[in-house]
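Aggregate trends can hide what the representation actually does to any particular protein. For completeness, the protein is quoted in full, as a sequence line and a line of structure tokens.
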Amino acid sequence: MAEKKTELPDSGESTLTVVLAGSVNLAIAVLKLIAGLITGSAAMLSEAAHSVADTFTEILLLTALKASTRPADREHPFGYGKARYFWSLLAAVSIFTSGAVFALYEGFSTIFGEPEEQTSPLVAYIVLGIAFLLEGTSWLQALRQVRGEARDTGRSFGDELRHSDDPTSKTVLYEDSAALVGLLLAFAGVGLHQLTGSSVWDGVASVAIGVLLAGVAFLLGRTNAGLLIGRQADPSLVFAIRDAFNSAPEVDAVVDLQTMLIGTDRVLVCARVDFDDTITAGELERVCVRMATDLRAAQPDVAEVFIEPVPRSDEELRAAVLARYGRSTRPAQVSVDQVSGTRASGEEPAG
């Protein structure tokens, strides 16, 4: 049996965070480019490329927010929630190709090329200071949103960054954090160039900025790839679903429980349940509908619910569940004993 949830997640604050970051990055990119051309600083030009990449990233994130809210249709019956992960993955690629690659190229060209004379370093300092203030404003907004999401989900700040199913706010926070560190690196590069007269320091700062951006792009790319492939729901939600099904008087055991994120705050639930053999087919249908309805009411993130009646004595199914989960896993995963609600210390699982 299946029940469908049609509400779409509210992305208002995510949109505000992304628009603010995009506006800031565009303004900063222009300032950095002008300063880079005036001073001839490789670090400043790298930072300009960094801000251009961040601006493209915000455009991709806005596309992600818009695309992911499209309602389900015949071709996409589970909706377009994963579009947010796809466009966010492209944003990570943009950070690498538009920012990291250019910064590394500019840095190595400066280190191994002809020495360059520095001009008007004061312009670079002024632009870097203005950029730091503007980036800090965007960073604070992203930080506030991620902290709010962590508070709403009952996670720590670190856990929210690792396990959040909304990549937009996390992407903005990561790229703004990288931007602030990059500004400090550029400042150091310009300052050391001025103090020593060697443009090598400028090149070293540019290479460091490139490595920083590559690291951020890798982290974001890995997160979004996992969400696109299909990640299970938060373990606390899985346990809550299991307990809700087990509490139904007609249920003998939850044999198997599979969940998958199909978008931000949207979870697909597939459960194999062993029901009381004394209930009729008509009663079974009504029980499945009631269980799905009650679950959606109790857990708003649950978007789709599929319940399949199965016997827990089926050895093939038991083997499949054991192969998928095993008897013990890392804390962030769910074992077969946890799914069925039995003890891992010896009691046989329901599968």
